[in-house]
Amino acid sequence: MPTHLQTVDEFEQWERQHPHEGSYEFVRGRIIPKPAMKQDEFYIADFLRRQFIKTQLFQSGHTLMPEGDSYVDGARKRVPDLLYVTANQHQAIRRGERVNTLFAIEILSDSESYEDVLDKLQDYFDGGTQLVWYIAPKRQKIFAYTSPDESKAYKGQDIISAAPVVPELQFAVADMFAQ
After folding, report:
1. What is the pLDDT of residues 100-149, one digit of tens each?
2. Is the CB of residue 107 less than 8 Å from the CB of residue 47?
3. How far from chain centre, in Å, is Cα 99?
4. DSSP 8-state secondary structure symbol assigned to residue 75
5. Pairwise CA distance, residues 162 & 103, whole Å
């Protein structure tokens, strides 16, 4: 992996010139491998996408997309497990613009450290994200962050909502883990 890259532009040019398997995040010169979703994480992503499809926002052209690029700034690009993309952002992407998600969902993996979580949270909010859900499958909890320093934990029969970004996306946490 190269260590001389400083910007997302340089990183993405390197990526185009060096095809490879998998995806990567880029954070201030560091190339971070982004492992693909595991089978036990897939059912969570599938549940969330199925819930989102029921919303009016989905009917209006918005989407909850797996493992897409979310640009923080010229030196940082993250790849959340799921990201919310508005219809306007779809159009911007088609025009070649880079967008940052307003709502990111991460499924906590065994290899992720607490420092990794804190770094990602800071990056998302630096880029304009309004809500981040960190899902902890082993604990069957969802941590909803409204800033890098403010979160609320949801579990069991607690109803979690993606308001204010996607107010219609709400469900009992236990339902997500009942599959």
Report:
1. 999 999 999 877 888 999 999 999 999 999 999 999 999 999 999 999 99
2. no
3. 13
4. T
5. 8
